[in-house]
Amino acid sequence: MRSDRHLKKKSKWKVFRNTFLVILIISGAAMAYAYYQIQPAQHFNAKSVNILLMGSDQRPGETIGHSDTMILAHVDLSKHQVNAISIPRDTRIHFPGYGYTKLTSVQYVLQSKNGAKAGIEEAVKVISDFTGVPINYYAETNFQGIQSMVDALGGITMDVPETVTINGQVMNAGSHFVNGATALAIARERHSAAGGDYGRQMAQVELLKGIAKEALSPANIPKLPTLVNSLSNYMLATNMSTSDMASLGLAVKNIDPNKQVTYKQLQGNQESLYDDVLRAYNDQIVINQQQMKKIIAAYFQD
């Protein structure tokens, strides 16, 4: 009798053990397949992708904003190379249906007219048409989003490209460990920067490098799924899925920013010109079209 009970217990244990092993094998296979699926070569099914990173001046409680920062990046998935350009917010463009205006105004006008989502999608198309670069993905955040991302990482180390004054304090050029509020202040500062808006663009790129280095550091690699999932809290708009972001993270995690990231600025002349949207004269940057075409041909083609 006791032996029968013992055999039944052993039999139940075997069933439980075998069931558990099957679940583990299936789960492991599913995880392996999922990991395979987010490998950049399989996930994107392309040699490269073009991504537009945008920063909006949209404030809490608002549903529309101006494009304050625009960085267009070409990620070469096979060569593990990133080429990026900054587009000045005050770039003079021809806005179909409106006339000539600053690029920063396009998003505000379109979102006011067509709603937040449709407005940003149309603004992305205007930027694509202006640069001649097909844009696969876009991601937009605001000032609070940048600050929150840096704080979520516990602060970052970033290179400040030139000496600036932040909150009344002089911050010398060089490497600094900063929290979210300070990182944001550096990225927004242009009045004390010797290069003006171009100096600010360089600071914004260094901020993004600092975020990427910290997020992809060995200590934070285990936290990447959580960080990727939390990105939605910082995004105003994007057409990237969570798996897109995870796959992109894998694509760039071993890139050396000092060797495999090329950064250019679109140059132009600042002129006082009539703005057809604002119906007044203001300072606009007229981009050197020849220089822009050379950069696009050199850095945005496989």
List strands and helices in order, with pairings.
Layout: H1 2-37, H2 40-44, E1 48-56, E2 67-76, E3 81-86, E4 92-95, E5 99-102, H3 103-114, H4 116-131, E6 137-142, H5 143-152, E7 156-160, E8 164-166, E9 169-171, E10 174-178, H6 180-188, H7 197-215, H8 224-230, E11 235-238, H9 242-252, E12 261-265, E13 268-275, E14 280-287, H10 289-299
Parallel strand pairs: 1-6, 3-12
Antiparallel strand pairs: 1-2, 2-3, 4-5, 6-11, 7-10, 8-9, 13-14
Please give a structural write-up:
- There is one protein chain.
- With 302 residues, this protein is α+β, with helices and mostly antiparallel strands.
- The chain is built from ten helices and 14 strands.
- The protein has helices at 2-37, 40-44, 103-114, 116-131, 143-152, 180-188, 197-215, 224-230, 242-252, 289-299, and strands spanning 48-56, 67-76, 81-86, 92-95, 99-102, 137-142, 156-160, 164-166, 169-171, 174-178, 235-238, 261-265, 268-275, 280-287.
- The strands form five sheets. Strands 11-6-1-2-3-12 form a six-stranded mixed sheet, with helices on both faces. It has a two-stranded antiparallel sheet with strand order 4-5.
- The N and C termini lie far apart (76 Å).
- The relative contact order is 0.15.
